[in-house]
Design brief:
It contains 5 helices and 9 strands. By secondary structure, it is α+β, with helices and mostly antiparallel strands. The chain has a domain of about 100 residues: Mannose-Binding Protein A, Chain A (Roll), CATH 3.10.100.10. Strands 1, 2, 3, 4, 7, 8 and 9 form a 7-stranded mixed sheet that branches. It has a two-stranded antiparallel sheet with strand order 5-6.
Length: about 220
């Protein structure tokens, strides 16, 4: 019994007295190996190189941004001006729309709700800082027909040579006369023009200026 206890104590003593393993690598001659220190040095070099690359990239980006903004010092001012111009255009568009004007191809148009003579219709347009419409294209001609009204337009003959001209004194170069027009029907002084035959593209008709018609004003505004 005593011998057994002594053996167990001996085994415990041997276990306790075992030397702790060293954290360092030891060579055959008892010296430290270079594997541990070499690995640490490699990691330090790799991390340093990575940081250097990041620093170089950041420097390149900074130089590009500096060059861009130094060449465009008015970029913020330009954006501000653009915003201001757009705001003014929207205000102008809203103001004319509320007054009954219709926008089409860089012009505003006002179609009257009552009828009067050609001269009084034009006077109303001038009071609105506009004039009777000048039709310069097929698209504008089609536009005037869509309102389904017989309308005065800004065309009248010159007094001197009786050639047709627009209210801004430009000569008539593109016309949309109805067949047989202008004709001075029954010898009348038909010195004003209306858009009468609305189901036809060529809808113009000459008529006495004292007749009663609706009228259409045009006001050119660059938006």
């Amino acid at each position: 019994m005593a011998r057994f206890v002594h053996r167990e104590q001996l085994e415990i003593t041997d276990y306790v007295n075992l030397p702790e393993p060293s954290a360092r690598s030891v060579g055959q001659d008892g010296g430290e190996t270079a594997a541990g220190s070499g690995g640490k040095l490699y990691r330090v070099v790799a991390v340093s190189f990575g940081l250097l690359c990041i620093l170089q990239a950041a420097l390149n980006i900074s130089l590009r941004l500096y060059t861009f903004y130094s060449k465009t010092p008015d970029i913020e001012l330009s954006c501000t001006n653009l915003t201001g111009d757009l705001r003014r255009e929207l205000i102008t568009f809203d103001r004319f729309s509320q007054q009954g004007w219709v926008y089409f191809r860089r012009s505003f148009y006002y179609i009257s709700t009552n009828q009067t003579s050609w001269h009084k219709g034009r006077a109303d347009c001038l009071q609105r800082e506009a004039d009777l419409v000048i039709i310069n294209s097929k698209q504008e001609q089609d536009f005037t027909r869509q309102f389904n009204k017989v309308l005065w337009i800004g065309l009248t003959p010159k007094v001197a040579n009786r050639k047709w001209k627009w209210v801004d004194d430009t000569p008539l170069t593109e016309s949309y006369w109805s067949p047989g027009e202008p004709n001075g029907f029954e010898g009348k002084d038909e010195d004003c023009v209306e858009t009468r035959f609305l189901d036809m593209e060529n809808s113009w008709n000459d008529i006495p200026c004292t007749d009663q018609n609706f009228w259409i004003c045009e006001k050119m505004i660059a938006l």
